[in-house]
Amino acid sequence: MRPTVAPFPTARFRRLRRTAALRDLAQEHRLSTADLIWPVFVREGEGVEEPIASMPGVVRRSIDNVVRAAHEAAELGIPAICLFPYTDASVKTNDCAEAWNPENLTNRAVRAIKAEVPGLVVMTDIALDPYNAQGHDGFVVDGEILNDETVEALVRMALAQAEAGADILGPSDMMDGRIGALRAALEAAGHSHVAIMSYAAKYASAFYGPFRDAVGAAGALRGDKLTYQMHPGNSNEALRLVERDLSEGADMVMVKPGMPYLDICRRVKDAFGVPTYAYQVSGEYAMIRGAADNGWIDGEKVVVESLLAFRRAGCDGVLTYFAPQVARLLRAR
Ligand SMILES: NCc1[nH]cc(CCC(=O)O)c1CC(=O)O
What are the catalytic residues (predicted)? Predict the structure, then answer.
């Protein structure tokens, strides 16, 4: 598109900014509650809501409270919730077997939500890190992250989640070939309706710091994830990964983190036109929330502006810890 601009004073951009109604009428992009996916942390216990120090306002919930959150999401009009387990050290092993236990925390939470709030979309995370004594997303042998063996384990994990009733599987592990393997296994096992949102362009980012506290992975993790997650300096690689994952059967693709990678969101949407999502990650949440709590920024305005930016960059939706607050704000407008 080549914008046509008449010379001043024929063109006066301020004409359409003069009143709230005119601004509304001319607004190009909008944020709606329907664009939100709410990531929620699950832990063992009952009646538990445990604060996370590095993410003020976010809690780890026992399953009964996750179900309450699911009701809240549905009432607010948030279409989807995404579950992340906070696991006890006792279930973290080198063989990561808890990851595909049909009775693990995530799978029990999925069933509990589906029993009570069946219309809510439930998304799950596929990666070994919550169940890995080594804290990595894949099996670690002699300091190396194994790819193909990990993919086999991810398939087992995915089938257990699909069996539990997950609507969208979110492979966040960044192993090669996992989307094709997951798609084939889902088709073969009668789960052809289960969608895959690939964490296709996932960067090795320091913005995940608070999340690793939230899921209790920070202590176990040695080193970094640079041999499987993307280097922050790359962008053509993101397009190649998105194309690869689409060709293997991903229904939706994600860019992660969000705000520092808006250029990637735009390029992905322009290149492929597929359902595109961004993850406003824990570090982004912590920065905004921390500055807001200190009175340095207007938290509500910054949150809405930060999420609108994803829409402008071409995203169809955003995973954000601010989802319930934003839904309430949008409803009040
Ligand atoms: N499979 C790991 C995973 N899944 C989601 C996040 C980060 C989410 C956030 O920071 O909010 C991570 C962290 C990581 O890759 O180390």
Answer: 202 (schiff-base intermediate with substrate), 256 (schiff-base intermediate with substrate)
Q: Check if 211 has its Cβ closer than 6 Å to any atom of ligand 1.
A: yes
Name the amino acid, one letter, at 199: Y
- The Cα–Cα gap between 93 and 157 comes to 15
Q: Whose CA is nearest to atom 16 of ligand 1?
A: 208
pLDDT tens digits for 147-201? 999 999 999 999 999 999 999 999 999 999 999 999 999 999 999 999 999 999 9
Domain boundaries, the chain: 32-332
Ligand 1 near 284 CB (within 6 A): no
CB of residue 129 inside a 6 A radius of ligand 1: yes
| Span 103-130, pLDDT tens digits | 999 999 999 999 999 999 999 999 999 9
Task: Assess whether the C-beta atom of 125 lies below 6 angstroms from ligand 1.
Answer: yes
- Beta strand spans in the chain (E): 36-43, 49-51, 59-62, 80-85, 121-126, 140-141, 144-145, 168-171, 195-202, 252-256, 276-280, 317-320
**Predicted structure pTM score:** 0.97
Give the whole-angstrom CA distance, residue 229 versus residue 206. Answer: 12
- 269 is annotated as an active-site residue: no
How far does residue 21's CA lie from ligand 1's centre (Å)? 41
Q: How far apart are CA 57 and CA 215, in angstroms?
A: 15
Q: How many whole angstroms from 296 Cα to the centroid of ligand 1?
A: 27
Record the tokens describing residue 42, joined without a space.
Answer: 């699950």
202 as an active site residue: the answer is: yes
Domain 32-332 has CATH 3.20.20.70: yes
Q: Considering only CA atoms, which of 145, 125, 126, 123 is closest in space to residue 134?
A: 145
- ipTM of predicted assembly, 2 dp: 0.96
Q: Which of 92, 114, 225, 256 is catalytic?
A: 256
